[in-house]
Every structure is written in C-alpha cells, then in structure tokens.
Amino acid sequence: MILIVDDNPDNIYSLQKLLESKNFKVDTAQSGEEALKKILKYNYALIILDVQMPDMDGFEVAENIAGFSKTKETPIIFLSAVNTDKRFITKGYDSGGLDYVTKPVDPDILMLKVKTFYRLYEQTQALKDIQQTLEREVEGRKQAQKELRSKVDYLHTLLESLPQIAFTCDHRGNIGFVNGRWFQFSDNEHTFPQTHPDDRPIATELQESLESGKPLEMEVRVKKRDESGYSYQLLRVWPILENGENNWVGTFTDIDAQKKAEKEKDEFLSIASHELKTPLTSIKAYMQLLDRKLKLDKGCAEAKYVNRVQDQVEKLNSLITDLLDLSKIDNGKLGINKKVFSLERMVQNAIDSIVQTHDQSNMELYRQGDISDLMIYGDEIRLEQVLVNFLTNAYKYAAGTEKVIVDCEVMVDFVKVSVIDFGIGIPESKQPEVFDKFYRVEETSFDFQGLGIGLYICSEIIRSHQGTIAVESSAGNGATFYFTIPLNLPTDAK
Ligand code: ADP
Q1: What is the whole-number distance in angstroms between the Cα of residue 409 and the centre of ligand 1?
Q2: Which pTM was predicted?
Q3: What is the pLDDT of residues 167-202, one digit of tens each?
Q4: Ligand 1, atom 7: nearest CA belongs to which residue?
Q5: Per CATH, the architecture of 162-254 is what?
Q6: What is the CATH number assigned to the segment(s) 259-330?
Q7: Ligand 1 center to residue 448 CA distance, Å?
C-alpha cells in the first residue's frame, strides 16, 4: 500500500486517482502528524510526501520516520515546489530509498519512480521471507540434530551400562559405536571378534540380515583377546529405525557356562540311558522266560502280577528309548533310513501295538480315510514311532473318553495323518511350545506322568522327512495332532 501525504486535498485526489488507475492500493494523510500515526500503525511500501505543509513539513516527517526502526527503511518520494537540494532530503535519513519529484507533478515521471520503488519493496519483502524461512529451517535442523544427539548419547550410555558386549552398526554393516566390553574380544572398534573356524563368520551372517532387514540371532564361539580358547556367545542384532534409515544394535551375551552345563547334561543323559538300557533288556528277557516257564492260568493273580511287571518294564523301556533318541538328536545322530513302504501297513502296526498295550482301556479306536494303495518314502519305524507317540498321548490325555480317531487324508502332493482325541485339550497359548524339548503343559503336568520329550522327538523325525507337524486344540475340547509327509517318491523308487 502507498501512503500519500499532502495538506492539499486536490493534490491528494489527483495523485490517488493516478495511482489507483495503475492498480496500486492507496492510503492518504492530510498532515505530517496524521501521516506519522498511520505509519506507526500500518505497513506501507512507499510514502509520497509533500514537502511544504503547515505545522510539520515533509522533512520533519521524514526525520521522524527515520527514527522508528519499523519504518526507517520505507522509501519516500518528496514532492517539492522547487528543485530541492539533496542535502536537505538525506538529512536524518540514511537508509531506505529516497527521491523527489518537482511540482507540478509529471505523472509519467512519478509513475516511473513509484514503480521502481514498489518493485524494490516487493523484492526486499520476498528476500526477507526467504531469509525467515531459511532461519526457521536452520533452527529446526539444529533442534533435530540436538535431539538426535541426545538420543544417540542416551543409547550409548545404555549400551555402556549393559553387562554384555554391545555395538551399533549402519545398514551397510559398518560398526559405529562399541562399548568398553568390546575390547575384551577385539583390539579395534572396526573388526568383529574372531570366531571359531567351524562357525560362520559374523560379518557374513550379519550381511545376510542387513540385506533381508530381519534381526539376527546366532550362537557363535568367539575368542577373548587374552585367552587361547573360544567361548560361546549369543549374538543378537536388531534393526532400529533412525532418520528413516535402518541402523542396527547388537549384543553378545555370554552363554558359555550354560552351554557347558547343557553339554554335561546331554552327556549324562546319554551315558545314563545307555547304562539303564542293558539291565532292562535282561529284565525284559527274563520276564518273558519266567512267563513261559510258569505257564500260569490267565485268570490267576500271579499271571496278573507278571503282566503288570511286563507293562511297567515296557513303559520303562520306552522312557529310556526316548532319552536315548534325545541324546542322538543332540549329537546329530538320529539315524533316518528312508525306503518306500506302505503307509497303510505302518498305520495298522502302530494301531495294533497301541491297542495291545491299552487292552484295559474302554476307548474305541476308529479309522477314517482310505490309504490302502499308498506308498510313501521315509523311515517306516521312525514314522510309526511318531504315530504311536500321538496315540499314546491320546490314550493318556483323553483317558475316560469314548473314542479316538486316526484319520488319513491324501492331498495333491502330501499325505496327512491325524490323531483326534476328545480329552483335556491344550490351551491355545501353550500350543506353540508343545513340540519343544522338555515342555509339558504346566496346569496338567502333575496329573500325568511324562518327560515332555516325545513330541520333540516326533518333530525332529518329521523335520527330517521335510514334513510338517502341528496341533489343533482348545482347552477342554480334545486335541488333533497331525503330521504331513511329502508324496514325491525318489525317481529310482517309483
Ligand atoms: P509327555 O506326554 O511325556 O509329557 P510329550 O512331548 O508327548 O510329553 O507332550 C508334551 C506335552 O504336550 C504334554 O506334557 C501335554 O501337556 C501336552 N500334550 C501332548 N499330547 C496331548 C493331548 N493329546 N492332549 C492334551 N495335551 C497333550
């Protein structure tokens, strides 16, 4: 907006019309005092100031304007009757634009000057806006950097306080920060600790994780700088999102003592089960001899006792066999001998042995699904062991119910064998763990005997057949345990 200051209303009128005809917005003042009041209140792009005015002349008004920081840079065009000496004009007004036009005003010259000053004003305004935006941006960035710095400091303090070795790295695997404990294993902050020659190098494993964006968790043997041996560490590396980029935080947790204890326990189990197996086999054989020799009447009490002993010996035998299998799995020696065999024969064998050992039970066993012609490729004895295990569990955890179903379903490229019972079932939250080593559902573990290793062995057997194993159940509504085996026979076996 342009302010015209003149004591003569006619002059104001003609100037105002002239400027408005060129699309400028105009305000007016008829005295120096009125002009100053308006200048303090509003922002003007340009002031056109008559020099000769009663009370306060144009120069005085200009001097006052120069005194206010808000207005001192507002350009002024003086309108004077004569060619005014520039000395007077610049008096007290050393910044901002100044010019003059002599009266009578030549509209073309005045418009030229007005346009120049107006453009200047607009450009200055635009520059100011840009400067303000830049300042705001710089301030924002400074603030963000400060916040980031304090977050990073916090993270580093946190990592320093951990009892583990901790480090951070960027998405390319370049190590950024390492805590003090790092130097027990590595002599510089850029290299990972030395790993055992039989373990995969950490950098290689990490690279795969960084590329997939998935957290890394691995057990690895690393060497302490001042020791010759290696110790087991659990390495965990997790992505954290920082500035839209994935950075990673890693820790090494010492699990050496735990690993040693586990190894000792495995060794003990292996030795103990081996040692127990030998006398038990003798007991079993002598019991059979005794049974044959005594030729007892089926109904007599002695025959019942001999039967009970044989049942208990059988239970003991299967417990010890499970323990032996467990130690074989731990040592990677669970032998799997695959051949092509009839699934029907295997299922029937499992059912026969279960029905025989549970002849006191009132539970009826039903079959579903026809697999009479189906040949599959796998370890018949081991797969029978899985089915026997499912059935033993069904008789155990559904004791007192009326039936159990063995269902065989042939799909396009796999066969599914399920054991369906109507017993106590398993709460959904516990189901993912039932195939873990030594896991037993806590709520029911006191009511039933067991070691919690049967299903673990089953899952290992099915895994080595590239099959799947799972349970569907809900507490109180029975359970369906099933496994699937792929149907692709080896080419030479078809
Ligand atoms: P064990 O029966 O010797 O405890 P398993 O490995 O065979 O060990 O089974 C693990 C756990 O899964 C059992 O302790 C039991 O809690 C649960 N479970 C297995 N089968 C069933 C079933 N048919 N119904 C309910 N719970 C079951």
Answers
A1: 23
A2: 0.60
A3: 999 988 899 999 999 999 999 999 999 999 999 889
A4: 454
A5: 2-Layer Sandwich (3.30)
A6: 1.10.287.130
A7: 9
